[in-house]
Amino acid sequence: MSPNRTAAAILRPLAPASPTLPAPSLFTLALLLPGCWGRGIEYEGGQPQDTSPPETSECGEDLDLTAGINIRGTAVDLQTGQPITRADTSADALCVAAIDPAPAVTGGDPEYLIVSTLCDDGSFVLAGLEEVPSIGVMVGVYDCEGQGTVMRTVTGVATESFDGMGAGDTLEGVTAHSVSATYLATMQADLGTTERDLGAEGFLAGFVTDASGAAVGGATVSCGSCADRPTFYLDANSKDGLWGASGTFNTSTAADARGMFLIPAARITTYTCDDGGVHSWEGNLFGSLPEYAVFIEFDAL
Does the 26-178 domain belong in CATH 2.60.40.10? Predict the structure, then answer.
């Protein structure tokens, strides 16, 4: 099973916000600092709680691999499918983080648990995860200082990927996708001017695979209340359009295009996948966030 598989979950409501503080909104995501999230104090049970993000560690430096569960993987460029390397070491490295998405699903702000930077070969290690969030972890890749070279992108890693793991164990082989600013512009252009703004409104995207991890063609991804939020499917021949050809959009996934789908401004709800009964998939509970590319994966049972 792929370590990036996500699964449906029933979320427990969060405790109500303090009356002295405004209730968090999903749309405040776009207003936080462009680096590694906002800083502040929240109150729980009358006691102040520091909500400052963890300090950013440099790739491979000062890592305590015994303090918790570790996540090791590679950041991959969505367009090329290749690791994000840094040939010019004078350029700023991209940030990478382990994120708890549960608060965002229920209308709050996602919690950044561990923050580091990508290594020059695109690899990363996120060390010391103390507890696996109830609906899994999102691994985020983004510009540390908001330089605008990539879209802030998060990739889901399912809770069951950590089954049996404890302090000192490492989940290997995690792929964290990244969308460059130039590829984002191409994605937007090929959707047409009437579609939603991918950069501003964000999108939900992902891949449909069989039980062996091979891409599945002829599958559709949808939700019960998504008639006004159509799904687009990557085309195997990008030269005549990313999502179809001659102004006609694809209606299902293509195996030669990695089984990729995209839903602009996707509602936060449960998404299902169907290919006429050839394969079966569990539903995925999530959606898009403003200014975010959110990636999930449907792995067949």
Answer: yes
Residues in the chain: 301
Radius of gyration of the chain (CA): 19
Cα(287)–Cα(253) distance, integer angstroms: 19
Q: Which residues pair with 249 in a beta bridge?
A: 244
183-225 pLDDT, tens digit per residue, is 999 999 998 766 689 999 999 999 999 999 999 999 999 998 7
128: tokens are 């010391």
What's the CATH number of domain 192-299, 2.60.40, 1.20.950, 3.40.1130, 1.10.357? 2.60.40
**Amino acid identity for residue 118 in this structure:** L
Count other Cβ atoms within 10 Å, centred on residue 101: 24
Cα(33)–Cα(35) distance, integer angstroms: 6
**What distance lies between CA 248 and its chain's CA centroid?**
28
pTM: 0.80
